[in-house]
Amino acid sequence: MSDTLTGVYPGTFDPVTNGHMDIVARAATVVGRLIVGVASNAGKDPLFSLEQRVALMEGEVSALPKDQAARISVQSFDHLLVDFAVAHDASVIIRGLRAVSDFEYEFQMAAMNSRLNGSVETVFLMASDKYQFISSRFVKEIGRLGGDVGHFVSDAVKQKLEQSF
Predict the structure, then answer these.
(1) CB 7 within 8 A of CB 123
(2) Is 88 a catalytic residue?
(3) pLDDT tens digits for the chain (165 residues)?
(4) β-bridge mates for residue 125, sequence order
(5) What span, in angstroms and rounded, lies between the C-alpha atoms of 161 and 14?
(6) Which member of 26, 88, 98, 114 is catalytic?
(7) Quick check: is 114 catalytic?
(8) Is the four-CA dihedral 63, 68, 74, 80 of positive or negative sign?
(9) How many CB atoms are closer than 10 A to CB 121?
(10) Which candidate in 2, 44, 49, 79 is catalytic?
(11) Considering the domain boundaries, does residue 160 fall inside one?
(12) Is 53 a catalytic residue?
């Protein structure tokens, strides 16, 4: 781990899943300081408000081991990711990859971000085997249809989902 390296892990996190938290925990072993950037992303028509998503992520981060959680902050943003990274002195954007199908989109985004600001590097972390199939979209759909989402999210997130449906 580089104590001086700051990274940004961006996402909509609607809702935050166990897969997201796996990437957060692993990213925190790579960088000295990690900022989880919760994107407003109104275009995705999120189930939870930006404030709710930030609060859910803060709750999940606080459940991590104290030495890890102390180096992670959660902040919302509604502008270009590279500008958000630069504003927080981050030189690394961390992205999770679940499957080959994620790669093409993420590759394009990394190229665009590099073109916008070449001093910010994108690093990909592969999802752990047990989380490769989890997506927020599927979790919401399962919850909406009355299925048990407890395998994919924490108890706190599960309760928020149940309240929403």
Answers:
(1) yes
(2) no
(3) 567 899 999 999 999 999 999 999 999 999 999 999 999 976 778 999 999 999 999 999 999 999 999 999 999 999 999 999 999 999 999 999 987 777 888 889 999 999 999 999 999 999 999 998 899 999 999 999 999 999 999 999 999 999 998
(4) 96
(5) 10
(6) 98
(7) no
(8) negative
(9) 16
(10) 44
(11) no
(12) no
Whether 98 is catalytic is yes
Residue 10 lies in a domain: yes
* Residue pointed to by tokens 């928020």: 160
Whether 9 is covered by a domain: the verdict is: yes
Q: What CA–CA distance (Å, rounded) separates 143 from 4? A: 40
Domain membership flag for residue 81: yes
Which one is catalytic: 33, 71, 136, 154?
136
| Residue 91 vs residues 19, 57, 78, 111, 162: alpha-carbon distances, Å | 23, 22, 19, 15, 38
Q: Which has the closest alpha carbon to 56: 80, 27, 24?
A: 24
CATH number at residue 101: 3.40.50.620
Comparing CA positions, the residue from 95, 83, 162, 159 lying closest to residue 127 is 95
